[in-house]
Write a structure and sequence with these properties.
The chain contains 13 helices and 18 strands. With 444 residues, the protein is mainly alpha-helical. A hairpin with a 5-residue loop joins strand 17 and strand 18.
């Protein structure tokens, strides 16, 4: 792809901050519903900002990183800078260029430049990107489950850092370059290493299947495939991480076109290989994608919906998924109040757990609770075959946000990270629960 063409296409694609794109004849949401979701997302994002020198708590201190950080949500949830949650919220268009640059450079500066082994016996490979970064001293925490730099990396969260953050780092850089038109940042040296070289190192950190380029893990050498299920054990070829790798390969190729065009084609070929192999490796008889080929090889709602969103499942394959999701929605096995389970209730591993191996009890957190983050992806998929069901699901999602809108007072908390039908909820004012659906609903 020629540089000028790449820039033109991407500049046209990026949503303009603060403007709702509603030029379609019909929408899944009404104009008022979409405006409500936009403003709610703006307010959640503002509640999630940690400004320079802003004091959070005695335990976590003040933001000493020199710029604004965006944490996963407001109030007291997750008081650090999480790479994936931030990157998943970029396409709202509500994050300034200056904010983006600071968080991109902070992520680059904390990338691992020398492999090391943690006290818990886990490995931090060269090129690893932090799972989250402390606000008080800017230290990278490469593993879930802790804020302690010295004692991070216990085996229950994997012996390698999560695989998704490397690909989200590339997405951060790609989005920043598109919005800012600042291609020179790719050549900027950060701790003695150019940003473009850091992006390449990140891309190649997750282990991969040498034949298919799918991200791969074993029980002894395991990284979390995607941080929104970091309390599950998932091994073998990994579908969700491979879907993220597909996008990252194309985005890295776009960036290489600007500074090292001779290298871009190898990443485009890698993306094409993943696209070719992925359906055959992971699809079950119904057309759903399995989460993996090893432990927890279960039909994965989130991965399947994202594959449709990214165009990895198209045509008849996407239509089969669409009909399955529509039927599951009507049967009550997919969602609750517009929020989505990782696994259909009919596909639970057994009566005691949704996932095969989980640190969480059944129907709580990532092991069977309902999440807003993937709602847009699922609605998009259902819309291919049943616009009426897609609209009904989307409006259930909006109704729950209106009912429990955190702006009503301290006893209200929507958007929650997740909840269930028994009154359980976790982490109010959660950013990706509105940011990710908003991005999709704008396009729909």
């Amino acid at each position: 792809m020629r540089i000028a063409t790449f820039l033109l296409i991407l500049y046209m694609w990026v949503p303009v901050s603060g403007k709702t794109q509603t030029n379609q004849k019909e929408s899944i949401l009404t104009k008022d519903q979409l405006l409500f979701l936009e403003q709610l997302t703006r307010d959640v994002l503002e509640a999630s900002r940690i400004y320079p020198e802003q004091f959070i708590s005695k335990e976590f201190g003040s933001n000493k990183t020199g710029g604004t950080l965006i944490r996963p949500g407001g109030r007291n949830a997750y008081p650090s800078f999480w790479i994936r949650d931030y990157a998943m919220s970029l396409e709202t268009g509500f994050i300034s260029i200056a904010e983006q640059k600071h968080m991109l450079e902070l992520t680059a500066a904390t990338q691992c430049d020398q492999a090391w082994i943690t006290k818990g016996g886990s490995l931090v490979p060269l090129g690893s990107v932090a799972d989250h970064i402390r606000i008080d001293d800017g230290k990278p925490i490469y593993f879930p489950g802790t804020y302690d730099f010295e004692n991070q990396g216990s085996p229950e969260f994997g012996t390698l850092p999560p695989f998704c953050d490397q690909f989200f780092f590339i997405h951060m850089a790609h989005y920043y370059v598109v919005q800012s038109r600042d291609r020179n940042i790719l050549k900027k040296e950060i701790n003695g290493k150019r940003l473009i070289d850091r992006l390449k190192a990140a891309f190649h950190m997750p282990p991969s299947n040498v034949k298919t380029d799918m991200v791969y893990a074993t029980e002894k050498l395991r990284g979390v495939d995607f941080g929104f299920r970091d309390v599950q054990t998932i091994t073998g070829d990994l579908s969700f991480a491979s879907i993220l790798k597909y996008r990252a390969a194309n985005e890295l190729a776009d960036l290489l076109e600007l500074v090292q065009p001779q290298e871009a084609m190898q990443y485009r070929k890698m993306a094409e290989k993943i696209k070719t192999y992925l359906p055959g490796i992971f699809s079950d008889k119904r057309g759903m994608l399995l989460a993996s080929t090893g432990r927890s090889a279960q039909a994965d709602v989130w991965a399947t919906a994202l594959a449709v969103q990214f165009g990895l499942l198209k045509g008849d394959a996407a239509l089969s998924v669409s009909k399955l999701f529509a039927d599951a929605y009507k049967a009550g096995s997919l969602s609750y109040k517009g929020n989505i389970r990782h696994i259909l209730t009919t596909d639970d591993f057994n009566e005691n757990t949704a996932w095969e191996i989980s640190l969480s009890p059944k129907n709580l957190y990532q092991n069977g609770a309902y999440w807003g983050t993937p709602t847009g992806w699922v609605v998009n998929a259902i819309n291919l075959s049943d616009p009426g069901a897609a609209t009904a699901l989307a409006r259930e999602y909006i109704d729950e946000l209106i009912e429990n809108d955190f702006r009503k007072g301290e006893t209200f908390g929507a958007p929650y990270e997740c909840f269930n039908s028994s009154g359980y909820n976790q982490n109010p004012v959660y950013l990706t629960s509105v940011a990710c659906p908003l991005v999709v609903f704008r396009k729909l």
